[in-house]
Design a protein that fits this description.
Elements (H helix, E strand, L loop, with lengths): L3 E7 L5 E4 L4 E5 L2 H17 L4 E6 L5 E7 L1 H9 L3
Parallel strand pairs: 1-4
Antiparallel strand pairs: 1-2, 2-3, 4-5
């Protein structure tokens, strides 16, 4: 199953937006707050066993970071010794 992309990107107003595939949220005052929104939404899809990829884009629309959030990835993290 392909990951659902959730994209965090800067808005022309100086804030940050989150494209959640079915809707756009924001603008938020900081990238950190926009990422928190994306992660909260991703957790809901994760509970339904649907993989999500959080993507951060810069002002040019280029990807600067991406992280897959899926049950397989979470199991891998939980299995690692601390």
């Amino acid at each position: 199953m392909a990951c659902v992309p959730y994209v965090v990107y800067p808005h022309d107003s100086g804030g940050w937006m989150v494209d959640l595939k079915t809707r756009v949220a924001g603008p938020y005052t900081t990238r950190h707050l926009a990422l928190q929104v994306a992660l909260a939404e991703a957790a809901q899809l994760g509970a339904a066993h649907k993989p999500v990829c959080i993507i951060v884009n810069d002002a040019r629309g280029e990807m600067t970071a991406a992280r897959c959030i899926c049950p397989r990835f979470e199991r891998h993290l939980l299995a690692r010794p601390i």
